[in-house]
Write a structure and sequence with these properties.
Its main location: cytoplasm. The chain is α+β, with helices and mostly antiparallel strands. It has eight helices and 20 strands.
Length: about 375
């Protein structure tokens, strides 16, 4: 097959490209330039897609003897990922930019262009498995990235290759070292690639400005603090609230109202979420019949929990958790997995959380 290898400059994508070559595919490497100021996108292990990363990717391609190109997708990345990230926080929601990048960039813009150029598939260094066209978790649970791939459709999965999903990260680094790749010991990228200093609140403040408002205690209705912008908070947050509630019990963010600029906080007993409403789901295969039992994961590194999924009556879903969850915020993706022990690593699909209810509140639309 003619395969396009997406090469970020890291060890995972380097080994994925090498394995595609070893499998006998006709491989071409491509590095995505995602920022107009690429010198600013890496700080040690933070960030990615810098000029340094492009050079690392080109060096691996040269060692593999494959053609290599750089595709400038900075404008589309800014519109579909960065601007979306800012807009979601401004609206009181908590997005996952890695999931959005996979959806809009790597498996939309890149895959569409690759197919248009006559390639059969795109190979990436994601830690996830494809088994008979079904998306499954990586065998390395600590590196599993199936959550951020849960937005992909069956057609997109048909054009994807994930050769690392059946091995551990230690094995990936060992393969790179055996081949003499300089990236064998390169640190993994952490946090959000377009916020290399890790200061999300500062990044948003520079774009949205100061938008002060009250912090209100849910139990008493009293104002217990002030803030400079609701975008500095996410549901479930405990640290950095700056509140004086009158007792020593920790407070958590329970809700964010960007119109009135109100952040509502409360004690742990109010932070549990029994159910959520979502937007329209995407499925990795044919849409299942509802209602159904499943497992759901609401954050990239959260533990999956059993749930019941039903039709929300408006195109979305109602997801009822078997155990109340904390830190479930509008904007997050609820990624659904099969519920049984044998096939519980198969990704069924995902839907964005639109509304979450506390135990003392009705679940509204």
């Amino acid at each position: 097959m003619r395969v396009l290898a997406a090469m970020s400059g890291g060890v995972d994508s380097a080994v994925a490209a090498a394995l595609a070559v070893d499998a006998g595919h006709d491989v071409t490497g491509v590095h995505l330039a995602l920022s107009p100021d690429r010198q600013m996108l890496r700080s040690g292990a933070r960030g990615c897609c810098s000029v340094e990363d492009a050079h690392d990717a080109r060096r691996v391609a040269d060692e593999l003897g494959i053609p290599f190109y750089v595709w400038d997708l900075a404008e589309r990345f800014t519109e579909d990922v960065v601007d979306d990230f800012v807009a979601e926080y401004a609206a009181g929601r908590t997005p996952n930019p890695c999931l959005r990048c996979n959806e809009k960039i790597k498996f939309s813009a890149v895959l569409d262009r690759a197919l248009g150029l006559g390639f059969d598939a795109v190979v990436t260094g994601h830690h996830a498995r494809l088994d008979g066209g079904e998306l499954r978790r990586s065998v390395d649970a600590g590196k599993d990235q199936s959550y951020v791939l849960g937005v992909l459709t069956a057609d997109q999965l048909a054009g994807a290759m994930f050769p690392l999903g059946s091995m551990t990260k230690d094995r990936v680094r060992a393969i790179a070292a055996e081949r003499g790749f300089a990236v064998a010991t390169k640190p993994d990228s952490h946090d959000i690639c377009f916020i290399p200093d890790g200061d999300t609140r500062g990044f948003l403040a520079r774009r949205l400005g100061s938008l002060p408002g009250p912090v209100v205690d849910a139990a008493t209705g009293r104002q217990v603090g002030e803030h400079d912008g609701t975008y500095g908070f996410t549901v479930g947050q405990r640290r950095g609230l700056g509140v004086a509630a009158g007792d020593q019990r920790p407070r958590y963010v329970l809700g964010i109202e960007p119109v009135t600029r109100t952040v509502t906080v409360g004690t742990a007993d109010l932070a549990g979420i029994p159910a959520v409403r979502t937007g329209v789901p995407t499925w990795t295969a044919a849409a299942p019949r509802l209602p159904l039992a499943a497992q759901v994961q609401v954050r990239a590194h959260a533990a999956p929990v059993h749930c019941r999924i039903s039709d929300g009556g408006d195109g979305g879903l109602v997801i009822e958790f078997a155990e109340q969850q904390r830190g479930v915020a509008p904007g997050q993706s609820a990624v659904l997995y099969e519920p049984d022990a044998v096939r519980g690593d198969r990704v069924m699909g995902q839907a964005a959380v639109r509304a979450a209810s506390r135990a003392d509140e009705p679940l509204t639309r």
